[in-house]
Amino acid sequence: MIEIDATATAILSALLALWLASAVAAIFIGLRRDVVARSHAAEIERLTALLAATPGAPMLVAPDGRIHAEDRFAAILGVREVPASLDALSNMETGGLAAADAEALRAEIEGIRSTGRPFIRALHLAGTHRVLMAEGRIAPRALGEGLLIWLFDQSEAMGEIRLLSDEAERISEALDSCLALIEAAPFPMWHRGPDLRLALVNSAYVNAVEGVSAEQVVTRGIELIDGSGDAPSPSAARAYESGRVSTQIVPVTLGGQRKMMRIVDVPMGAHGVAGYAVDVQELEAIRAELGSFQSAQRDLFDHLSAGVAQFTADRSLVFYNQNFLRLFSIRPEWLRDAPEFDRVLERMRDAQSLPEVRDFPGWKNDRRAWFNAVSAIEENWTLPAGRHVRVVAQPLPNGGLLLLFEDRTEQIQLTSARDTLLRVRAATFDNLFEAIGVFAADGRLTLWNNRFAEMWALEEADLAQNMRVDAMVDKVAARLLDPSRAQKIRDLVRIATVDRQRERGRLSLADGRHFDFAVVPLPDGNALFTLLDITASRGIEEALRERADALEEADRLKTAFVANMSYELRVPLTSIQGFTEMLAGGYAGELPESAGEYVEAVLASVARLASLIEDVLDLTQGAAGQLPLTAELVDVEQLLRDAVEAAGPAAMDRPITLQVELPTQLGTIRGDERRLRQILDHLLENAILYTPPGGKVRLTAEGDEDWVSWRVADTGRGMDSDQQARIFDAYPRIDGTAEDGSRSIGIGLPLTRQLVEAHGGSITLDSEPGEGTVVIIRLPRTVPEDTSF
């Protein structure tokens, strides 16, 4: 028996204990590793299942181009086995990538190797419509060197994408059409986003707000409605919040014009609000016009002399005028309750305002049928107390009825009176001395009297047929003294009926009778033709005409006689004046003092007589239009002062005061200076002659660029209206007595008027008895062209 010492035993025990501990630790470690291995195996199994469940298949491409992949990769490619290399991807017997896509895949792989950037690319399988999506990147380090490429079958997705693309294209085309339609819309349209601010507007909107472009309008948020400013439209806000269409009619300024627009905002859910604006100005105007028309129509009905009642489709009274109340004696309080048609008829019957009929219910039912009539119905009612009413029932388009009641009682009475007046007129026409015929606008003879028919010898048959004026002309031509003037009758009727003008004249018949005719247009468009027999007065007229001719000839002979006598008288008067001047000059010896006075008196009388003869000659020459005149420039102021100086001695002899008031510059006029001086001499001579001693004669003058005038005023006895009417008569006359008792031949003022008018001027006289006389001469500075010198 082997004995082991204690040391060895201890060592052995220690070793055994160490081995046991190592064994236990190894068992523990092994168990732990087994748990970890199982966990890793489960994780690997889970990851493998997860990898197998992915829609794609991975492919590891080695640096040398070899491919490492599972069978699923071959199934996605549509081949029997996994290709060995990239070159084999497109060299399959069946399936595989299209050659172009395989080359593109190799280019993408080379790109990853050089840049390291991943790629995504669509690949097409050869001979099929299948599409694969390849995503490539550098392989994780755990997989070794190479590239990791995933292939996903996107055929169904691409089909969906194509369908969605087609749908999107269709929607895009529809949207483009819709946008084009919106753009082409003639009224403003817009779209607001969820913030209710403008996002889209059409051209009509841009034009309406006078914007530059749609972008500018949207950017600046220019609102269509005045006064909205930057704030969103309240109408759009209501539509967006309520989810219901909002409509409002507001005034809008478009192109500088104020119009009424209907603004419509349509909610689009989360996409905002769409809207459009329609011009309802014309509609509102028509609506207002319709209301005005209805109001005006009722106002018109109220002013009609006829009674008016309107019923609705349910036969209720909705309107009546005052004449309806008056005509049928119905109280307005009862009508305000809108009574039914039958009740109104019954109330009218109670007021004895309906015709008396035996079967009133049946009569009322017949009138109720008026509501269903197609056209207007007219009746004449004979009411008690002799009243006559014309009734017009007009069915209305809305099923109602409009009744018009016209009181024709007075009209019927007037018709009866008219018939009586027509009979009286016919009797009056037949007994008138004038021949009377009335022609219608178409030229037919509609009315005549017996004298008219007798004058033209018209037959009863022709008159009964209302013969035309053309046929009448043919019949009456032979009765005229000049048959060619028969057409004048037709022309006269046409002038009166068509041109509406009056004509007068004379007709002579072949039997020696003469007629004054008048054609007068009548208010009804007809023409009145009257003929008055003036045969007797025509003879008297011819006798008077012959007498007038004789008087004119006598007047011409008288004028010629006066002119000749005036000329003949100047010859002996000149001799008398010459011999008298010789006596006064002492050629016959020294004369006694008394003889000298006689000679002076003779010379004064000769001068006076010569002046009168000269005036008479001038007056007769002026009346014959043969007054000689010369044309020269005359200083007006000098002319007036010379005339006043010449009249001074006569004024001092009276004695009277002769006043002169002349402006500093009166200029010149063109005329005959001798005749102008003659005008002044006559005016001053008459004024001095008819002014009593102590009186005053005043001469004033004024002028402008075109005219010169002077006034001669005296404080004499004046003239009444009869004397003023005769003062400018063209023939000499004994003029009454002057203030000193002398008498004057009144040819001064008639001659003065002739001389003034010969110079193109005018003369006026203003006088009152006891107030003196003022004579005003007005002359042009240049003589008119039609004045002959």
TrEMBL record:
Superkingdom of the organism of origin: Bacteria
A molecular function (GO) term: phosphorelay sensor kinase activity
Keywords tagged on the record: Kinase, Phosphoprotein, Transferase, Two-component regulatory system
E.C. no: 2.7.13.3
Domain Histidine kinase: 564-783
Endpoints of the signal sequence: none
Pfam families according to UniProt: HATPase_c, HisKA, PAS_7
Catalytic activity: ATP + protein L-histidine = ADP + protein N-phospho-L-histidine
Name assigned to this protein: histidine kinase
PROSITE patterns xrefs: HIS_KIN (PS50109)
